[in-house]
Amino acid sequence: MELDVMNVVSAVLVLGIMGLAFGLILAVASKIFEVKTDPRFPEIMDCLPGANCGGCGFAGCSSAANAIIAGKAAVNCCPVGGAEAAAKIAVIMGVEASAEEKHVAHVICNGGTAAKKKYEYIGVQDCLGATKVAGNGPLECAYGCLGFGSCIKACAFEAISMGENGVPVIDPNKCTDCMQCAAACPRHLIVSVPVSKKVFVECANKQKGPAAMKVCDNACIGCGLCAKECKFDAIHVVDNVAVIDYDKCKNCKMCTKVCPKDAISPIATKEEKEKYKAMKKAQAEKKAAAAKAAAEAEAAKAAESAAPAKEEN
């Protein structure tokens, strides 16, 4: 009996000594191989929203925090945290946060129910999946929104809903510009735009006018009237479709009033277009009258100059 007790005590002592030895070894190893964390890391993590959406271009918030500390990302790289998070991180990093305008996502398509269909799709309600069926999806337009809501499912902020015309609509008040919706769109129809801009070309069809009209009633036909009308050189036809340069756009909306296909929003009303035509007509008449008056004045001046010459002769 005493022998059994001694064996148990010996075993406990041996195990205790081994545990202490291994503990010391692990403690020493943890110090030797310790990966030191920058004290700013947890502070920056507290400023970030923890959405891990990837909108900053990094794998998640921790990757973004490390990139900020390493100088590989700006303090305002997080679109979800916005200006408030950028200001706090700037204080931690000892720098100034640049005041950049908020951007939001926008769907550049207004086809939806106006777009022609090749067939009725009844498969999995997923945009990418639909493009794999029978020649790039059910729409005649190879550039149009398929309307199956993959972008809606991808949005973690409930900022996207399906519009009445079958095209997703983005709520700028909820959008964080993380652009996960853009990553989910197989047609690449979602772009980031400054929140202050209110004019949009709602078409991405790069076909020439006649071909574009055949596949969608709302398609841009690349006529160039909008580019001619813009006084700020802010809109041009590129690859048969109008494109807005938001660095130059002043939200004057003149381009919306001359678009024959209503492919630029906000769509001008009939009254607005009639009023605009009347204004342009008045301007043209005034210009013609001024030119006529100038020509008459020049003719009169020439006649006066010729009169003395005749008297001398």
Features:
two-stranded antiparallel ribbon, 313 residues, Alpha-Beta Plaits, 8 strands
The assigned CATH architecture of the domain at 102-196 is: 2-Layer Sandwich
Strand residues, percent: 5-15%
Mean pLDDT: 87
Helix content: 40-55%
Characterize the overall form.
elongated
Rg: 34 Å
Q: Helical element count? A: 11
**Strand order within the widest beta sheet:** 1-4
Reading off the top of the CATH hierarchy, the class of the domain at 102-196 is best stated as Alpha Beta
Largest sheet: 2 strands, antiparallel
The CATH topology of the domain at 102-196 comes to Alpha-Beta Plaits
What string, H for helix and E for strand, traces the elements in order?
HHHHEHHEEHEEHHEEHEH
Q: List low-confidence stretches.
A: none
Question: How many strand segments?
Answer: 8
Distance between the termini: 156 Å
Structural class: mainly alpha
